[in-house]
Write the structure tokens for this entry.
Amino acid sequence: MFESMFENVREKCPLIHNITNYVTVNDCANILIACGASPIMADDKDEVEDITTICAGLHINIGTLNRHSIASMLIAGKRANKLHHPVVLDPVGAGASKLRTDTAMQLLEDIDFTVIRGNISEIKTLAFGRGTTKGVDADVADKVTEENLDEIITFAKTFAKKTGAVITVTGAIDVVSDGRSTYCIRNGHPMMSSVSGTGCQLSAMVAAFITSNPNHALEAAAAAVSAMGLAGEIAHERLSEMDGNVTYRNYIIDAIYNMTPEQLGKGARYEVR
Amino acid sequence: MFESMFENVREKCPLIHNITNYVTVNDCANILIACGASPIMADDKDEVEDITTICAGLHINIGTLNRHSIASMLIAGKRANKLHHPVVLDPVGAGASKLRTDTAMQLLEDIDFTVIRGNISEIKTLAFGRGTTKGVDADVADKVTEENLDEIITFAKTFAKKTGAVITVTGAIDVVSDGRSTYCIRNGHPMMSSVSGTGCQLSAMVAAFITSNPNHALEAAAAAVSAMGLAGEIAHERLSEMDGNVTYRNYIIDAIYNMTPEQLGKGARYEVR
Amino acid sequence: MFESMFENVREKCPLIHNITNYVTVNDCANILIACGASPIMADDKDEVEDITTICAGLHINIGTLNRHSIASMLIAGKRANKLHHPVVLDPVGAGASKLRTDTAMQLLEDIDFTVIRGNISEIKTLAFGRGTTKGVDADVADKVTEENLDEIITFAKTFAKKTGAVITVTGAIDVVSDGRSTYCIRNGHPMMSSVSGTGCQLSAMVAAFITSNPNHALEAAAAAVSAMGLAGEIAHERLSEMDGNVTYRNYIIDAIYNMTPEQLGKGARYEVR
């Protein structure tokens, strides 16, 4: 299943519109190319409608939001909805400031998202309108573990039903749910949290996967999550003793570039609940 | 010829003012240093005149333009013209939105550019006022090939005469024309299109080359194009089986850093028509 | 001493608020993670108070300033002062434009900085209200050498007394002074000046070090400076013949990631005057 999801990205080379932060934007562009898609970044309100229109999917990331980009997110999101283009929301740091929480809530209200991807603290903030995000990382009290996995699954299912979006909670175990089925994905490596922007990169890649697999948002999002985790595993094996988090970042994107759909099919570790 | 063009960059270490996008800006800064220049990025209208004045050349890239940076581009460009500083335009994504096309046209009208560098779709958009850009990549129907090379050369010559700028169309074969002579450059590697921002990096480097070689804009631009392509070849040879597009990006800039003028002289593959 | 300074960063994992430029912001994020801290970038005036409040330290860098980010710097700086959070100023390019010089002066007037870090041209601009910065690099006439070291030390001491900040002048020899004691640090490698943003990265890391070592701003800043220089040495030894400035950038951050406090203790080369 994941294999064909990935094959479709490589075949269709979808053009993805990204309104994203200036911290990890270059990595988002390069990982989109690495997985087979084509990125365009544009965040001015005078052009986002045009750009969304020529693209096949939209990725909204609130990482370094400001009043101008927020307006553009709303315009682009509504346009994408009208065109029935898939839209991904990455609510980076929701819970860390009133502006981020309010913006995330407003985006949720005005736009139908196909997938929402964040860490558990960010997604809880969206679900409950308030949060305990530690900056842009998940709160320690909040991590996904084997112990609270059932609880997180229930939470994700409920929030997916409420929003109509595929809820993607990433962490030590990734949980991807459309309210009916839930993928629990166990790919990845703990060192991925030492790289700035692996979450942003994944959100961009999710946009490419769901755009290339219409009517399979759940499986496509799960495939992207698994691919990112598998890339983290492959990249980690390459590291020599002196390599650190930046070389690791480079190797992760390299691993996506070289990954075959077959490799993803074999390397994916997940269960459906 | 290319050899001495490159030597002059290394000798003069020109300070280059960049008003560019936030996606590939870091790579632009590092490749400018790698080739021997010194970069400064500044895009606020309250300082661009000052910055252009202390610099020796200007690089304008519309990659993530907005109303503020557009105003700054116009101010900086006019100031550079007044000071007789060379100016490069990279019309990223012209044709992809009305804002980009209109901005590119307005820049063309208000500023005398020394060099305009883009893919064939972007340059056609500038020439005809409309285009079929596929996001930030050239339209497939539009690629430069041996079959349409004569036609592209004629197009570039005509547009160079009209604008007074050296027209630099990059692709599988690069065409650099001042309306009289045209360089057809066959350096490079197809994998360069898998790296976000090789075009932006090249535009920045063109600014360094033409700034260091006054009255030789055609040869200097051609030398920069050839150097970038040669770096793509050298970097590609270094790649191991697990390396992908991000390591390739790093190796390309590394190759510029280590390239000697002699190496460029020997490695350049071009004809003048 | 430096050893325990570094240990405290790794132990406390401080959350650092960065208002910084879009050129080197990704490297700042990754080096903060590499040294043990957690970064958040936020520059909109509607959220900086919130973000500063949840963070433990603030890093202000004027690299690509604009009217919006300047307002945010002032708001965040005042908030940090009120909360007694340490604040670092990196006056990138002060002296290169009136806007940068004026902004740096206004920040100095309105905010109590714990540490101010820049090259000698930038710091002189702050001290004398005008400067001869060559873009974002120190003026050649201005470099720190063994010959003018005594003079620079006296200058740094005087400016430290005047501002109440630890003055950190980086160059071939780094000078860190609180007006009473001065660290002269001889770590580093000349090739570090071929990497865009080593100064920005250091400023971010200084914020992490002083935040983790309250009441030891001088020693903490000196430890960060020494760590950066040592990383430059370690990274340089790794370089192969074909590696250039971008691989060097990656290896420097990698070296911080892998550096142990003991390694810093042994590798630090400094004298206190």
User: Anything to note?
Assistant: The mean pLDDT of chain C is 96. The interface with chain B takes residues 21-24, 26-27, 63-67, 93, 96-100, 134-137, 194-197, 241-247, 249-250 of chain C (CB under 8 Å). Residues 2-272 of chain C form a domain with the UDP-N-acetylmuramoyl-L-alanine:D-glutamate ligase fold (CATH 3.40.1190.20).
